[in-house]
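Annex B. Sample input.
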Amino acid sequence: MSTSKTTTRKTTVRKNQKEFINAKAKAEFEKIRENLGDKITIVDEPILIILANQYALYLELQETVQKEGVVLYNDKGRASFINPNQNALQSIIKNISSISKEFGLTLASRKRQKINLDREDKENSIFDLGNNLTNSDDLEDI
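Annex B, continued. Sample output.
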């Protein structure tokens, strides 16, 4: 006859702690939250934080790839491989697209969910990326 000891692990939940990778991610989170308004709850916040962080990474990697180029060259000047940052960028775009669709942040998903997210400001945001993805013919390449 075996006896088993049950242990209880106490989990500490830190309320209102949001883990943003930088100020751009935090600002994007606030824009998303404001635009979605009462359509989201506190349960949605963790995935929206992930979305905002992914968008901040997207901006950084996009700049890096533009500087370095999509194809990197070896010492002999021959094209040898695709920039690893380009691969990471493509992965992030897929993540952003997937999460954006869930929250109605793409043009197609807003139409399906009958969500109106008209913006008065013309500042670039994650909404623009989502719209570009849904309007792009190159989605199969991503």
